[in-house]
Every structure is written in C-alpha cells, then in structure tokens.
Specification:
The complex is a heterodimer of chains A (about 280) and B (about 170). With about 280 residues, chain A is α+β, with helices and mostly antiparallel strands. Chain A contains 13 helices and 14 strands. Chain B has about 170 residues and is of the alpha+beta class. Chain B has a five-stranded mixed sheet with strand order 2-1-5-3-4. Classes of the chains: A alpha+beta (about 280), B alpha+beta (about 170).
C-alpha cells in the first residue's frame, strides 16, 4: 500500500523542531523511519506533518565524558555496532545490536527512534533498563533526564511530553568487573523476539555483587526481574531464579506463542544467559 | 527552514547521473526510482521492509528503498542494481548466480545482489554463515537459498584464486 498524503519538514536545528511541535495535531517526528514508514505504508498512522530529524548534526554520535557515554538520538544501529567506544564501554549494546532486524534496517534505524517508539518486544529499551540509562529529553522548557525505569510506560507509550524531543541517551560506563549478557529467541534471525533478555552485573571471582535482568517481549514494556536477580546474587541456584520469574513477567498470548510458552522460554533464556556470564565468555 | 509543502524538489545522484525532480512528500524512494526514472530493477514486494526486494544503496550503504521517502534522498547518492550492473562490480557474482541457478523467478535477485554487494565490501571473504546472515533479510520463495549461498561462495572462491594467480 501507499502512504497517505502528509507535509514534510526538514529542520536543521532543534529550535526549528520545537517550532514544529507547536501543539497542532498530527505532527510526527521521523527518525530512522524503519517502524514509522511501514506504519505509513500500511496506513496504520496518518500524520499531517512529518518532521525529519535526519539533518540535525547535534543528534548524531557517541561521546564519553566523566564516565558517562552519551549516544545521540539519531545515531544509527550500524554505528553502534561498529563503535569501538560502545564495544569497550557499553558492551551490552554491542551484543544486542546484531539481533536488531537486518543490516539494511540497521543502516538506517536509530537508537532514539527505537526508544521513543517503545515497542515492548525490542532490544534497546531492555538494554537501557539493564544499564540504568538516562533518557535525555529536550524542549523549549529545557532539558531533563528520565531514568529508563520511569521512561517506558506501556506499549508504544513513554514519559515524553508532547513538546519534547528525545535527543540522547546516557549510559554509565561499565565498571570494573562488569559482565554483560544478551540473548533472544526468535523464529528466524532478525524477526521480532518472542522473548529476550539483556543482563548487566558485576562479578568478582565466583561472586556476584550486582545484577540486573531486563526481559523484553515478556510484558507491555521491558521488565526488570528483581527477585530472580537477587536469587542469582545470593547463589541460590538457577532453578530458584527461574521460578522467581513467574511474578516478574507478564507475557501475553499472540499468534505465535502462548503466554505459558513465553514464560517457559524466559526461564530457558535466563539459564543460558547466566551460564554464559558465569563462564566468563 | 523548509516550509512544510506537499511537493518538494530534490536533486540527487542516481547511478552516477545528477538528477533534479519534483516529488510528493508521501512517495517512497523505490516508487520514485521505478515510476519517475524508469529504473525498474528495484522491486517492490511487501512495502513494509520485510522482503528486501527493494534494497538499494544510499550513500554507500544498503537500505530498504520502501522505508525511505524520496524527499529524504535529496543530495544523496543512490546506486541501484542497474548501477551495480553497469559498473561491473558484481559481474562475477551475477555470472555465478546463473551458473548455480541461484534465481528462478528473479523477483528477489536485485535485492539479493545489492545486499551481497555490501557484504563483499565489508567482508571480502565471508563464511557460509556470514553469507546466510547477510541475506537473512531478503526473501526468496523459489530457490530455498542454498543455491544463492553457493553462488556467492563460488564467486568469492574464484576471486581468491584470481588474486593468488596475480
């Protein structure tokens, strides 16, 4: 199908973007377009104006300052996959990105678009949760930082206000002895995950001192499995951690899988990811 | 800033040729290439980024032509399967496709070739797994994929042999 008619604006500064977000109905920001344009082509959305963020240089790139890695919202997945800074300082992101769709999509899709869309079955929102990221939102009123755990509110729902633009995401650099783990189960490579897990912890020798387990595809937003993480930290064995997922996750039935199957697969993934992290590979 | 108008004038380079055209904001890149420039090598399958038949190169990287608006290609450099064919960069891979019967109906082939062109630029000696991974976003309903992977492997092996002889 073909997209409905809309107007197109190509601002080159954030101030111009704020002008576009004047409160009128139907203004949508266009980032990489790898989810928005399909929804236009299928006529699932009908904006009156698309505001293209691809020409705002300030929204691109990965930088490090004072132990914080800042990724501009319009940084493309492929840039994340090939950034030495991401590989060394936020390796969980480097592990997650190859699971996102396919190369041609990763060449265009952006981290800001992915986070602002807040699809609960996608990789990067869960990584943000596991890494305690701060999402940076800007508007005429100024800039504010929103903790990832407060940002994702539901399916395609975030804490961004209508006049705000997601401009960057900030990650604390991996501490000494940090370990990360990532895996997902999908029917085919590049498909949306049935269920997935992004994990980040600190481990010295055989002992965990912290661990965050962020599941995706297991509820209406990425979800932290805190009791399961505590069970792993306390060394209670993987079976107890897996059992603790029951209360943390709330997958729903879909055309592909029952909620019961997804719960089972979440337990399988937890076993695999923890085993990988503990083996140090 | 650009006023939010329906029709926009874009200037871009397509297969080495500088082109200026007027496009509706809603028109995606592949409709523009096919309908305004008669470059019908890029195929439209699903029109929502799943099948890969519309894959073209934009500023040196492979993208889904149906997931980019024509108006966004202003100032861009586009190479389609016609451009890749004319330049000869894929002539050996195309020959290997023929030899190995890596196409039947041919609908997916331009997207496959464009994807493989990017793969061989980044990784000139890909393993079978790397080839499968690279084309995982391109649907083929005829060949069962093995012949396509074989063809790429054969072309790569022939390039290695040729290099060794030089």
């Amino acid at each position: 199908m073909k997209a409905p008619a809309f107007a197109y604006a190509k601002p080159t500064s954030l101030a111009e973007v704020f002008d576009c977000l004047d409160g009128s109905e139907g203004v949508r920001l266009l980032a990489g377009g790898q989810s928005l344009i399909p929804s236009l082509n299928m006529r699932l959305s009908a904006p009156t104006v698309l505001v293209d963020l691809n020409h705002i240089a300030a929204l691109r790139g990965v930088t490090e300052a004072s132990g914080v890695i800042r990724i501009g919202a319009m940084t493309r997945h492929h840039e994340l996959a090939t950034s030495p800074l991401i590989a060394s300082r936020v390796p969980l992101i480097a592990k997650a990105v190859p699971h996102i769709a396919h190369q041609a999509i990763r060449n265009r899709g952006t981290i800001g678009g992915s986070l602002a869309l807040a699809d609960p079955s996608t990789e990067l929102p869960a990584c943000c949760l596991a890494l305690d990221a701060a999402i940076v939102a800007a508007s005429r009123r100024g800039e504010r930082r929103i903790a990832a755990r407060d940002f994702f509110l539901g399916i395609y729902e975030t804490a961004l206000a209508p006049d705000e633009v997601l401009v960057a995401v900030e990650f604390p650099a991996s501490p000494v002895n940090a370990v990360s783990g990532f895996d997902e189960l999908a029917r085919r490579h590049g498909d949306y995950a049935i269920v997935g897990l992004a994990a980040q912890g600190v481990r010295k020798g055989e002992t965990w001192s912290s661990l965050k387990l962020a599941f995706f595809g297991a509820g209406d937003r990425p979800l932290l499995a805190e009791a399961a993480a505590q069970a792993v930290i306390a060394g209670k064995g993987i079976a107890e951690a897996q059992a603790a997922l029951q209360d943390a996750l709330s997958p729903s039935d879909d055309g592909e899988c029952s909620a019961k199957t997804k719960m089972h697969l979440a337990r399988v993934l937890l076993g695999r990811v923890i085993a990988t992290m503990e083996s140090g590979t | 800033m650009t006023p939010a108008a329906e029709i926009h004038t874009i200037t871009l380079t397509v297969n080495g040729e500088r082109i200026t055209r007027s496009v509706a904001a809603r028109m995606h890149l592949v409709d523009f290439l096919r309908e305004q420039l008669d470059l019908t090598g890029s195929h439209l399958g699903c029109e929502h980024g799943v099948c890969g038949a519309c894959t073209v190169q934009v500023d040196g990287v492979a993208v889904r032509g149906c997931l980019m608006l024509a108006v966004q290609a202003d100032s861009a450099t586009i190479v389609t399967v016609e451009g890749l064919t004319d330049s000869g960069v894929l002539a050996d891979v195309q020959e290997a496709f023929l030899q190995r019967n890596a196409l039947q109906c041919g609908f997916c082939t331009p997207g496959m070739l464009t994807t493989i062109a990017e793969l061989l630029t980044v990784n000139p000696d890909p393993s079978r797994d790397a080839i499968r991974d690279a084309i995982s976003g391109n649907y083929c309903r005829c060949t069962g994929y093995h012949a396509i992977v074989d063809a790429v492997q054969n072309a790569v092996a022939a390039r290695r042999t040729k290099e060794a002889a030089e």
